Automatic annotation (TrEMBL):
This is CPBP family intramembrane metalloprotease. One of its GO terms (molecular function) is endopeptidase activity. Keywords: Hydrolase, Membrane, Metalloprotease, Protease, Transmembrane, Transmembrane helix. It comes from Candidatus Odoribacter faecigallinarum. The keyword Transmembrane helix applies. Residues 143-239 form the CAAX prenyl protease 2/Lysostaphin resistance protein A-like domain. The chain crosses the membrane at residues 14-41, 61-84, 104-125, 137-157, 178-195, 201-222, 229-247, 267-284. InterPro entries: Rce1/LyrA-like_dom (IPR003675). GO terms for biological process: CAAX-box protein maturation.
Length: 298
């Protein structure tokens, strides 16, 4: 049984999906209470803004509390899948009999290499005048520890929600894997529309980057019969984003190695991500040969 075909297991009435999404949303909101208290303590205000939330991640404690809310959602989703949908937890993760950790680490490693290469492009082409090296060992290594422990919860929650739960639900609805891929990829991109990058650079510049990432994550999950490579991509991407570069327009204003004093973005960033995605698929297909496997679903 393929990864998407596993969507037919368990109980799949539409109201179970609505109930699960409500429970998961409520759990993540409960998970944000410590962060809300921290933000209020830092800047007492009855209505915190996105800037207040972004500013909270400029401290390691604030970042940890931000990521903690995703851990609440992660646990809630797994419990709903098991007890409401009566599915095996692996059903929304992979078509294999067990989780392939090798694929997760391989995907993370390849995407990390590609990401580091794209991070180095501005340096190689002399566009580094606005970059400031801000390494502070006492803060950076705490950031690194927090990232390694808590980002896997955040990225796994997003992957299980979009590439697992919602993509399988969309497949049940449309009975077409490509419709499921397009829908969940676009929703994934739009869910990031409140990020500071979107406000700073414009929706037509920033959102396509998220949508392309959504397509990459969903495509490899479908073709490789499981989310392991996608889990690796996502966790490597977010950890590196947190520890390498930050700026006033970044979602995560962390104690990263570099701060960009004059950040900019253009449609070329989407092109770079697209090229990296194509290279990633090519490399992974060389190893796992998933492009040549016959599929039994539409």
């Amino acid at each position: 049984m393929t990864f998407l075909e596993k969507s037919h297991t368990g109980r799949n009435q539409w109201y179970f999906y609505i109930l699960t999404l409500l429970i998961v949303f409520t759990a993540t909101q409960i998970g944000t209470l410590p962060l809300a208290g921290y933000i209020y303590f830092q800047n007492p205000s009855p209505t915190p803004t996105m800037q207040d939330i972004a500013q909270a991640t400029s401290t390691n404690l604030g970042l940890a509390l931000t990521l903690l809310s995703f851990a609440f959602g992660f646990v809630a989703l797994l419990l709903c899948v098991k007890y409401i949908h009566k599915k095996h937890l692996l059903d929304i993760v992979t078509g294999r009999d067990r989780l392939d950790w090798g694929r997760i680490f391989f995907g993370a490693g390849i995407w990390a290499i590609l990401s580091i290469l794209t991070f180095l492009l501005p340096l190689l082409f002399g566009e580094s005048d606005t970059l400031v090296f801000q390494f502070d060992a006492s803060k950076f290594f705490v950031l690194l520890l927090i990232s390694l422990i808590l980002f896997p919860f955040q990225t796994s929650f997003e992957e299980l929600t979009f590439r697992g739960y919602l993509m399988q639900g969309s497949y049940l609805l449309f009975n077409n894997k490509w419709a499921a891929l397009v829908l969940t990829s676009v929703i994934f991109g739009l869910m990031h529309s409140a990020n500071p990058e979107v406000e700073a650079f414009g929706a037509w510049v920033a959102l396509p980057q998220y949508i392309i990432m959504g397509f990459l994550l969903g495509y490899v999950a479908i073709k490789d019969n499981g989310m392991e490579l996608s889990l690796g991509i996502h966790v490597a991407n977010n950890i590196l984003s947190a520890i390498t570069f930050t700026s006033d327009s970044s979602t995560l204003q962390t104690h990263a190695l570099f701060r960009d004093l004059a950040p900019s973005s253009s449609w070329m960033d989407s092109v770079v991500i697209l090229i990296a995605a194509l290279v990633f698929v090519w490399i992974c297909n060389r190893k796992y040969k998933f492009m040549t496997k016959k599929e039994s679903i539409c």
